[in-house]
Structure formats: C-alpha cells, structure tokens
C-alpha cells in the first residue's frame, strides 16, 4: 500500500514581466517621455528603489522601478537622472504602492519624489496578522504566483546592470497593483481599512531620522570592551573608518571590519608594527592604510583622562532599559508586564502583530511615566507618544486598568523584564 502523502502542486513561476524587461532610462529625453506617459496613465503607481547597502556608504537609490496602467513598467537610472521631481508631479495625487515604504521613501525623496497618498503592501500584511511579509511570500500567498528572485543583496551601483538583475527589479513592481487590490479587499472585510489609512499616513509623513547618539557604540562586539581607554581607541578607529568610508563612498564594513576595530581596542598596540601583527591589519589592503589606523589608535591612547568615553555610554533617553526596571522601580516593572500582556492579548484577538497594534517603545514609555490611571488621561498620553487614533481606541481602556498596579503585585517575585 502506497502511504506517500500527496504533494501540493507547485505554484507557477513568473520569470519575466509580461511586457518584457525595459532598459534603464538614462537621458532627459527618455525621462520626459516617461513623465508624459505616467501623467496620461491611470490608477495607482507601483514603485520600488534599489540601493547598494553593504557596498556603498550612502543610502541613495541606484535604480528606480515604476509601473502604472497605460504607461507600463519603466526602470530609471538615478545616477544619470538624479532629479525626478517632474515624474512625481506627473503622478500628482495618485496613490503610490510600495512594499516596506519606510525603506525606500528617504532615497526617493532625495530624487525629488514624494507621495501624496500611499499604500504599503508589507504594512498591510502586518495589519492582517501575516508574520511573513516578504514581497515574494505575500505574492505567493495572495496571488498564487512565485516571483523570480535572488538579487536583493546585489551591488546596485554596478554599471552596466546585468540583465537578470533588471528582470528581478522589474518583477518587484509587476504585481504590486494586483497585490494592493487583494490586500485592500481583505482589510475592508476585516474592518481594518481605516487602521491602514492611518498607518500609511504615518509612514508617509514620518520625519527624516536624525543622527544617532554615539553611533560607534553599535560596533559588533563592542560589549567585549569594558575599559574606558580601550573604548576611546574603538571610538577613534570607528571615526577614522567612517570618515574614510564616506570619502570613498564604500560601506564602512568593507573598509575595516568591526571585529578588527574591537581587536585593536582590546590589545592597545603601542606601535604600527604591533598593529600590523593583528589579524586583518596585516593584510595588503590594510597595510596601505596602516598609518591612518595607527594614528587613530594613538589618538585614543593619548586622550586625556577627562575626555575618555564612559563605559555605559551617554543616553538622552530618560527612560532606562527595561532590563533594569526590577531593581530601580519594581512597580514600573510590574506595570510594563501588565501592559505588554494587554497588547499581546488584544493583538491576538484582532489578528494583528503586537508591534503594529502598539509600538513597544510607546508601551515602555507609558509604563515608566504613567498618567493618572483614568481613561481620558491614558488616551491623551498615548496620543502624545505617537499612537494613532485606531490604536488608542483599541487599547486605552485595557491599558488604563493595567497601569493601576497595586504595591503587592509589584513586590511579588517574577520573571525579569526583557527589552
């Protein structure tokens, strides 16, 4: 008896766009023709952008993909055509469809492109409770088609771009309109259309991210460095690397790996020869820059004591890491546990990811400095912290009760609060 289980038929694979793969536009005449075509087109516009993260220092776009009914698919080379405000004007009030819009909107804004309306297919999936929201996965789930993928981590600053990369890029916008329509229908059926509208607007209007405080502390492995002098060397090497990487427009990790910086900081080499004796620094490429790197090491070694960085770092955030709450304020720690339980329960009830129901940072700040435990005050505080109206409506009542933690509850032993 054959006990093999029947297998589901494999979904059809979309290898190329239906209308073929266009060549990237590189001239003003080609762009002008596209502007006319897009302006005469109808319906929403599918958009995407490819960067060269991991290869280049900048986060600029190296390819822009666009598709609209009546205009077809276009690929634009923003190296040759860095001003696309005319294209944005041609779209006008038309809706932009992007997947993970917060990743692409900044580099599109650098080109003069800003949406008047937005639909984010990844965010729509999260609001519907989907945990796997990669574009290919969502196209398979909702449209029953597999996309030819494989070049998301490519160096898109490469010129000329290989044909198979262009296929991949064009496919990223091939089915976005169809996916948007399916997701919009599901959101409407679930009563979540207004949720989505508010979330999309929040992404569209989000301000540009400011510079990080002490970005060098994000070095991989920096937790191994606990001495202030060693930290000064790590900071000096990070700054030297960052300056050189920006000058050459190369990703910092390709200039000098984080592990090499941490190793040099921990060993504090006293001579350039000693530095060259460390792994990585002895290689031919790093030997050419040995003077630069050793100069940074010397600067860190010779820094006056009063200028050494602190071990724990400088924080402008008045709210401490949640892992310290049990010791500093056990009542606040109990409030945080109660609030997180509320969000998790409501997220399950409404089939939405907890982080999208209410951002963890909003929950953390609400629990640390709670308002008066009455619903109007909690609603006001949630709005101040950036919660959207739909989020406030769903969570305010339950969070009001969760914030009213009695002293006896806080004093009971319990699990540590994690970040």
From TrEMBL:
<dbReference type="InterPro" id="IPR051086">
    <property type="entry name" value="RNase_D-like"/>
</dbReference>
<dbReference type="Pfam" id="PF00570">
    <property type="entry name" value="HRDC"/>
</dbReference>
<dbReference type="InterPro" id="IPR036397">
    <property type="entry name" value="RNaseH_sf"/>
</dbReference>
<dbReference type="InterPro" id="IPR044876">
    <property type="entry name" value="HRDC_dom_sf"/>
</dbReference>
<dbReference type="InterPro" id="IPR041605">
    <property type="entry name" value="Exo_C"/>
</dbReference>
<dbReference type="InterPro" id="IPR002562">
    <property type="entry name" value="3'-5'_exonuclease_dom"/>
</dbReference>
<dbReference type="InterPro" id="IPR012337">
    <property type="entry name" value="RNaseH-like_sf"/>
</dbReference>
<feature type="region of interest" description="Disordered">
    <location>
        <begin position="1"/>
        <end position="24"/>
    </location>
</feature>
<dbReference type="InterPro" id="IPR010997">
    <property type="entry name" value="HRDC-like_sf"/>
</dbReference>
<protein>
    <submittedName>
        <fullName>HRDC domain-containing protein</fullName>
    </submittedName>
</protein>
<dbReference type="Pfam" id="PF18305">
    <property type="entry name" value="DNA_pol_A_exoN"/>
</dbReference>
<dbReference type="Pfam" id="PF01612">
    <property type="entry name" value="DNA_pol_A_exo1"/>
</dbReference>
<feature type="domain" description="HRDC">
    <location>
        <begin position="227"/>
        <end position="307"/>
    </location>
</feature>
<dbReference type="InterPro" id="IPR002121">
    <property type="entry name" value="HRDC_dom"/>
</dbReference>
